[in-house]
Amino acid sequence: MGYVELNVLNNTVPAPAPQVALGIDLGTTNSLAATWREGRPSVLRPDGRSGLVPSVIYFPESGAPIVGREARDHAVVDPRNTLFSVKRFMGRGLADVAQELATLPYAATENERGLIQLEARGRRYAPEELSALILRKVHDVASTALGEKAPTKCVITVPAYFDDAQRQSTRDAARIAGLDVLRIVNEPTAASLAYGLDQRDKGHVAVFDLGGGTFDVTILSIEDGVFRVLATNGDTHLGGDDFDQRLANLARTALGAEHGDELTRDPAFQQAARQAAEHCKIELTNQPEAELHLMVPHKRIAWRRRVSRDEFEALTADLIERTLDSCRRALSDAKLTAGQIDEVVLVGGSTRMPVVRRRIAEFFGRIPHTELNPDEVVALGAAVQAQILMGGRRDMLLLDVTPLSLGLETMGGAVSKIIQRNSTVPCEATEGFTTYADDQTGIDFHIVQGEREMARDCRSLGRFKLKGIPPMPAGMPRVAVRFHIDADGLLTVSAKEQSTGISAHIDVQPMHGLTDSEVEGMLKSGYANAVEDFAARRAADLKTEIGTMVLATEKNLNAGRAGLDKESIRDLEDALRDAKVAVQQDDVKALQRARDEFERAALPLAALLMNNVAQKALMGRSLGDV
Amino acid sequence: MPNCTACGAPLETPVACAACGAVHDVPEGASPFDILGLVPSFVVDERDLRRRLTRCSRLVHPDFFGTAEAAVRERAERNSARLNQAFDVLSDAVRRADWLVLHLGGPTEENERAMPQAFLVEVLEWNEVLEESRAASGTDPRIAPLAAEIADRRAAGLARIAQLLDPLPERGSQQLGVARRELNALRYLDRALREVETLRLARAERR
Q1: Is there a domain that residue B8 lies in?
Q2: Are residues A384 and A441 in the same domain?
Q3: Does B86 reside within a domain?
Q4: A202-210/A479-485 β-pairing
Q5: Do residues A429 and A491 touch, judged by C-beta distance below 8 A?
């Protein structure tokens, strides 16, 4: 008879069933979730659709905000109430983003604490609240794909070059969305995980990540499953949007000369120009010439212009140069030359542009990897990292760095660096402080992030105040302040008074980002209300879907009746009746059954209609006319 | 090195036990050498150092504590930071030498500001070239040879420091003061090299 051996000494308990967490790419243009399934990362696609959620939010006149594809369609019709590119405003002040605001159709203001607010339908939203809405939508889509409520534990990616405030904002957004963030991971680093480059035992990798609104380059060394980031560089204000703007400027210049500033400042015009430019840019990826075609119906404007790929590349040459400058700086920091890089990985939709691929191949002297979809590779990598964090993989180890030096403002406004850029995280440094006056109980200090000599040229992370120092003669207290940058790249500051041995409680108050109570408030009040009933949501979605199908079928059945056999017609009529009954109730399983059955029954009709369309096309009419 | 308080196995590093995985509180005064399980010495094998970083990171990196209880997670996070800090000091010859000079009771940078005599003459010449190059618009043909010269000078300085610090001198030895002066020169050289690099990158950008 067999028996169970109990390991009493180690008090071993059977390992619980492995849990998974989501990997989420929260992008400027699109967002996406992936998870670990059957031994590898996979994108969560509901019903075989792409899973990509456009990072766009539309605020209708009444009712809840609409996020994603549907919201994007409102952008031209109602540009003032359609918010996009929210990521560009995360953790920033108005002054940081003045340039992009000039080209945006919606309004932005600053609140009393210098935090940016975007306006729609007369209400102001913090970028964190808006990102939370996108995250909720991504989570919903993931739930739909999984057929059950998706995990709330997740890994969220950010550009490697994001500073502390931008990372903190991302974390706050997730909290507002009711998600539990296991880790903030840098996008290029995540991408390197997705490529399974750990299979090679040794080498140097460059990840070039040009997204919708941000650019990063990261240089890693890989050795025995350890991914060590050597250097990272980038620009959080450079991306595909900027390439679009160059094309949009063609329209702006031409039409501005003809119709004046009043037109070019019109939000509908701006939105139309933006979309026309994006469309033209995408076409130029596959063909040497494309049309920039712009319509603003209420201004009676229909404008077109041919743009060649050469012209487009000339218009954007300086943008490509800026990315190469970052590559040079990253290589210099990594103490490597371009020729020492063994693999180059391209990430981000903007790397589809042929000019990017060509210049990168020239620069590094090798053909870059493009096997994985550049829109999906970051989410896939986040799913790998999520799996590591959930305890599912111990063979890989990721050592990432902090992108920017951390410093303190000294007397006279100079910066004294306490943590150098490209230091492996987590990292920490301790700095000593003392008082200038007798019985002084507080010390102020100003923390900045950046590489410039003067504090005013760096990014302020806020003024901190040490309070609660025991009263002593000037210069006597020895306050040790510990600056810790965690694996998320987030800074925490703690302090201890050492000379007296009195364990004084010293508060460190940050002065940037949302306060805890603000996040709490948004959690309670916002549309992005934390945990929603997945079943109720799914039922509502299915009802809408069935409703649309019923309408379409009823409309087409009369036209198609003649071409169908009796059995198919009876079958479809039965399914129609059943579907109408099914939508009276909230049972998800029954609704799903009804939808599937209806879809099956509607197949012959759909085939017939497609056939008609094809025949008409053969008769010399284009599909678009039918 | 003491034994593990959880399982009794001998510890290779104070951050955690390789045998049972327990994460320990690292004593406040633990040195970078202690943390990576090394005896203080100016000579370190870079490859061995990287291996030690990897091995210790696998014990305490926060990635492996995603589902651990908060207290353990925080300790791992803290130890991981100490580990990275120790690696940063030991993997850089200048920072390593600086730590050893201080640890052996030698002068601080503030107490001993002098540089070797001959060095000052060279500095004046380099400064002239750098200044002119900064003002010039095109690529200065003198910059590349200058960078090579400074790098050579740096290697020579490091070699002298190695002679002074290997084997380690007695506590409070005169040699520590000499080493400090060489270190001051090296810091200066590193600043000059950064300057050259900035010029090089700026030229590339203007192109």
Answers
A1: yes
A2: no
A3: yes
A4: unpaired
A5: no
Which CATH number goes with the domain that contains A384? 3.30.420.40
- Provide the residue range defining the domain that includes A496: 406-501
Domain assignment present for residue A81? The answer is: yes
Contact criterion met (CB < 8 Å) for A183 and B84: no
Burial class (CB within 10 angstroms; exposed 0-12, middle 13-18, buried 19+) of A556: middle
- Examine the domain organization and report whether A186 and A250 are in the same domain: no
Bridge partner list, A57? A67, A83
**DSSP letter (8 states) at residue A52:** -
Contact A193, A202 (CB under 8 A): no
Question: CB-CB: which of B77, B87, B88 is closest to A487?
Answer: B77
Which of A128, A140, A187, A266 is labelled catalytic?
Answer: A187
Residues A485 and A435 in one domain: yes
Among the listed ranges A528-532, A575-579, A582-586, B46-50, which one has the minimum average pLDDT value? A528-532
| Residues 6 or more apart whose Cβ sits within 8 Å of residue A369 | A195, A343, A344, A345, A346
Same structural domain for residues B132 and B195? yes
Q: Which domain holds residue B55?
A: 1-91
DSSP A363-409: HHTSPPB--S-TTTHHHHHHHHHHHHHTTS--S-EEE-B-SS-EEEE
Contact B50 A223 (CB under 8 A): yes
Q: Catalytic one among A87, A137, A281, A543?
A: A87
- Per residue in A274-298, pLDDT tens? 999 999 999 999 999 999 999 888 8
Total residues belonging to chain A: 626
Are the CB atoms for A181 and A155 separated by under 8 Å? yes
> How many independent structural domains does chain A possess?
4
Question: In terms of domains, do A87 and A177 share one?
Answer: yes
CB A125 within 8 A of CB A149: no
Most B-contacting residue of A189, A325, A420, A490 (CB-CB within 10 A), to test interface:
A325
Q: Give the tens place of pLDDT for each residue, B120-171.
A: 778 888 888 888 887 777 777 888 888 899 999 999 999 999 999 999 999 9
- Kindly tell me if the per-residue pLDDT of A178 is higher than 90: yes
Closest by Cβ to B77, choosing from A329, A388, A486:
A486
Evaluate whether residue A381 is within a structural domain: yes
Determine whether A25 is an active site residue. yes
Q: Is residue B98 part of a domain?
A: no
In a shared domain, residues A126 and A259: no
How many whole angstroms separate alpha carbon B101 and alpha carbon B45? 19
Residue B97 is assigned to a structural domain of this protein: no
Per-residue model confidence as pLDDT tens digits over A465-506: 777 788 888 888 888 888 899 999 988 887 777 766 554 445
Interface predicted TM-score (ipTM) of this complex, two decimals: 0.90
Q: If we measure between CA atoms, which residue out of A116, A59, A114, A110 comes closest to residue A83?
A: A59
In a domain, residue A83? The reply is: yes
Tell me, yes or no, whether A31 and A105 share the same domain: yes
The reply to whether A162 and A249 lie within a common domain is no
Q: Is residue A283 part of a domain?
A: yes
Could you tell me which residues are beta bridge partners of residue A203?
Answer: A222
Chain A, chain B: beta-carbon pairs less than 8 Å apart: 74
Closest chain A C-alpha to B2 CA, distance in angstroms: 21
> Is B57 in Cβ contact with A399 (below 8 Å)?
yes
Whether residues B109 and B195 share a domain: the answer is: yes
User: Is A209 noted as a catalytic residue in this protein?
Assistant: yes
B137 to each of A321, B1, B140, B192, B203, how far by Cα in Å? 19, 58, 8, 19, 8
